[in-house]
Design brief:
The complex is a heterodimer of chains A (106) and B (119). Chain A has strands at residues 4-7, 10-13, 19-25, 33-38, 45-49, 53-54, 62-67, 70-75, 84-90, 96-97, 101-105. Chain A is mainly β. In chain A, strands 2, 4, 5, 6, 9, 10 and 11 form a seven-stranded mixed β-sheet that branches. Chain A has a four-stranded antiparallel β-sheet with strand order 1-3-8-7, with no helix packed on it. Chain B is mainly beta and 119 residues long. In chain B, 0% of the residues lie in helices and 50% in strands. In chain B, the strands form two sheets. In chain B, strands 2, 4, 5, 6, 9, 10 and 11 form a seven-stranded mixed β-sheet that branches. A four-stranded antiparallel β-sheet of chain B has the order 1-3-8-7, with no helix packed on it. Classes of the chains: A mainly beta (106), B mainly beta (119). Chain A binds chain B through residues 32, 34, 41-46, 49-50, 55, 87, 89, 91, 94-100, and chain B through 4, 35, 37, 43-47, 58, 60, 94, 96, 99, 102, 104-112.
């Protein structure tokens, strides 16, 4: 089974900061990685799929990069509404989620 | 507008069967795949299983012996049944629609049904 490891588990940043979240796969998953945002009490929202494709309607401050085993979600300028937990999902071989990164405002 | 809504019991006795319903709108379950995903309290997400638009199913191998996913196409509903429940089956159960083109991507989720397994 493919394991997904996210880091950091918790991140505190200021409005306007450039924020980078990491997701590592235990084996090659090519480009088959998605990123989701989950706010408290809400459904997860798809942000990025195929490692770097922005889902329709998602602000352009969100971007994804990487392939193989190492992936990154970047928020170019953090906004207050970005406070949430972010998790990655590999969809190369069935589906495995990362443990999540909880992002809060400093 | 695509919507998914999970419904089911909030409390289930150990060893009993959990039944959760996903009612969808804005798309047809005969045109898009639907997965179930669960999340124990304070832990990560786990893919449970899926029903493909053609009606076939696939299950997480660790849960397969206890699972059944089915659907009612006339009501646009998908059903999850899990038997022999234990306390570590406690969590939030989500249904999620798959992308039409990139079928392996889950692009819309319900808000989840919270289930506690306890006597």
């Amino acid at each position: 089974d493919i394991q997904m490891t996210q880091s950091p588990s918790f991140l505190s940043a200021s409005v306007g900061d450039r924020v980078t979240l990491s997701c590592k796969a235990s084996q090659n998953i090519n480009k088959y990685l998605a990123w989701y945002q989950q706010k408290l009490g809400e459904a997860p929202k798809l942000l990025i799929y195929n490692a770097n494709s922005l889902q329709t309607g998602i602000p352009s401050r969100f971007s994804g990069s990487g392939s193989g085993t190492d992936f990154t979600l970047t928020i170019s300028s953090l906004q207050p509404e970005d406070v949430a937990t972010y998790f990655c999902l590999q969809h190369n071989s069935w589906w495995t989620f990362g443990g999540g990164t909880k992002l809060e405002l400093k | 507008q695509v919507r998914l809504k999970e419904s089911g019991p909030r409390l289930v006795q150990p060893s009993q069967t959990l039944s959760v319903t996903c009612t969808v709108s804005g798309f047809s379950v005969t045109s898009y795949h639907v997965s179930w995903v669960r999340q124990p309290p304070g832990k990560g997400l786990e893919w449970v299983g899926a029903i493909w638009k053609g009606g076939s199913t696939d299950y997480n191998s660790a849960l397969k012996s206890r699972l059944s996913i089915s659907r009612d196409t006339s009501k646009n509903q998908v059903f999850l049944k899990m038997n022999s429940l234990q306390t570590d089956d406690t969590g939030t159960y989500y249904c999620a629609k798959h992308h039409g083109t990139y079928y392996y991507v889950m692009d819309a989720w319900g808000q989840g049904a919270s289930v506690t397994v306890s006597s």
